[in-house]
Specification:
With 275 residues, the protein is an alpha/beta fold. The protein has 9 helices and 8 strands.
């Protein structure tokens, strides 16, 4: 497995930490990432034990900022969201994670612009804490089917929101591969890019989340990875696999193939003759 690849716990279908740890061990994962559900409180001891005994490095934590609420929600919910995020920032610092990536919360009754301003105001105190802790805060793009939890459904919108908030960006390739001038957006965002998430899509799939093993579908992933590397990205490529295809194949088997396929793409790009 290429050392730039991390394996997200989401690849294992919401499994508990003990199962995730066993799967990481089977796959010999050096770099890993988690969904914040695996840190339900402020006790990092179980996860720290898994990381230390398995020789894993925690790269990032995925955390939806306003869980179950929209950006037009009351101040009490925002205060609660800040407390939870600050707890995760503290955990990330103690565990040595580089970043936390998030989604903003849904529009509710707000326009995009008003929702974006509300998000910037809501998360601003947490960004101060994150800078103090040395933990990068990132915003990702997500498909519009997730409008209940996010407002940035193109890479361009994610970049705009990140620039407004003073955050970094995640390139979620499954959610942006069909966009116009994607190479231009990648170049624009590379200085802010803290993570690239990789999966694939097979034409005709309708059962969401319709992820496929990289290399099995229609996304020209090698080309996208080439654009990203050529733009100057030197970070991690996070595998985020979920959905019926992954369930049918088996989570470990699908993740192993994904790691092999993305490793082969990265190695072939590394082997290119200098321009």
């Amino acid at each position: 497995m290429d050392d730039r690849i991390s394996i997200n716990s989401i690849c294992f279908g919401g499994a508990p930490l003990a199962v995730v740890a066993r799967n990481w061990e089977v796959l010999q994962a050096r770099r890993v990432s988690i969904v914040s559900d695996l840190l339900p409180g402020d006790d990092i001891t179980p996860l720290r034990h898994v990381l230390e005994t398995g020789g894993h490095r925690l790269e990032t934590i995925m955390h939806p900022f306003l869980i179950g609420h929209h950006l037009d929600t009351g101040d009490e919910h925002i205060r609660t969201a800040r407390l939870r995020l600050n707890t995760l920032i503290d955990a990330a610092e103690r565990l040595g994670a580089k970043s936390i990536y998030t989604v903003a919360g849904g529009h509710g009754a707000l326009s995009w612009e008003d929702a974006a301003e509300r998000f910037c105001d809501a998360i601003a105190p947490c960004l101060v804490r994150a800078r103090e802790a040395g933990v990068a805060m990132l915003i990702e793009n997500s498909p519009a089917i997730y409008a209940d939890v996010h407002i940035a459904h193109t890479l361009r919108d994610a970049i705009t929101l990140a620039e407004m908030a003073g955050m970094g960006v995640v390139f979620e390739l499954f959610g942006c591969w069909t966009e116009a001038d994607l190479r231009g957006s990648i170049k624009r965002a590379i200085p802010r890019c803290g993570l690239v998430q990789v999966s694939d899509y097979v034409y005709g799939d309708r059962a969401l989340p319709a992820r496929a093993v990289p290399g099995d579908g229609a996304i020209q992933l090698r080309t996208l990875l080439e654009w990203i590397l050529d733009a100057g990205y030197t970070g991690i490529f996070d595998l985020e696999l979920l959905g019926p295809r992954i369930d049918r194949e088996g989570h470990v088997a699908a993740t192993r193939r994904a790691a092999e396929n993305v490793s082969a793409m990265l190695e072939s790009l590394d082997a290119r003759a200098p321009a």
